Amino acid sequence: MTIPAAVGRLSLRPLDPLRDAGLLHRWVTHPKAAYWMMQDAELVDVERAYTDIAADEHHHALLGLHDGEPAFLMEHYDPVHRELVGLYEPLPGDIGMHFLVAPTDRPVHGFTRAVITAVVAHLFADPAVRRVVVEPDVSNKAVHALNEAVGFVPEREIRKPEKTALLSFCTRERFAAATGVTA
């Protein structure tokens, strides 16, 4: 899937846990990726984590490309089986999502918003998806603003083993109203 954006062309491809591990390791251990909670990870830890995801039928990772170059990471998961089990009552058509924009010395204005828009559009391209669920750290104010900009509505704080998170939802209709993008 290729998505035209004001910042260039964004596309997604399946993540190769071994081939992409070095790149991901640089991203997830960068200080700007603190909320990814892999700051102290070794390369082998990243390989293992993404090999586990690749083998999991309920959790998937995709590498995001900007004009053909790796620029972001997207994960999606079934909240019935991963991440949010027992923390809320999933509805049919719910899908969970995480995204990480690669650190850069040359930031592009509007890039992160274009990425989250592309990620959510990709998820809603599946007609079975009715709602996207996110659970960012409550202190991650920047991502809360991005989520709101594309149609997410916070529901409540939840306690996960690794953090206190802000459980938020985005319906297809809210996404279209916020972004003008229909999937």
Structural notes for this entry:
This protein is 28% helix and 31% strand. The protein is α+β, with helices and mostly antiparallel strands and 183 residues long. It has an eight-stranded mixed sheet with strand order 1-2-3-4-5-6-8-7, with helices on both faces. Helix 1 packs across helix 2.
Task: Please describe the structure with a list of short key phrases separated by commas or semicolons.
183 residues, alpha+beta, 31% strand
Brief overview, please?
28% of the residues lie in helices and 31% in strands.
Low-confidence parts: none
Tell how many strands the DSSP assignment holds. 8
**Helix segment count?**
5
User: How far apart, in Å, are the first and last alpha carbons?
Assistant: 12 Å
Overall pLDDT, averaged? 92
The whole-angstrom Rg is 15 Å
**What would you call the shape?**
globular
Oligomer: single chain
Helix % is 25-40%
- What structural category do the secondary elements indicate? alpha+beta
Strand residues, percent? 25-35%
Strand order of the largest sheet: 1-2-3-4-5-6-8-7
Strand and helix order? EEHHEEEHEHEEH
Main sheet attributes: strand count, strand direction, barrel closure: 8 strands, mixed
Layout: helices, strands, pairs:
Layout: E1 2-5, E2 8-14, H1 21-28, H2 43-54, E3 59-66, E4 69-77, E5 94-101, H3 111-124, E6 131-134, H4 141-149, E7 153-160, E8 163-171, H5 172-179
Parallel strand pairs: 5-6
Antiparallel strand pairs: 1-2, 2-3, 3-4, 4-5, 6-8, 7-8
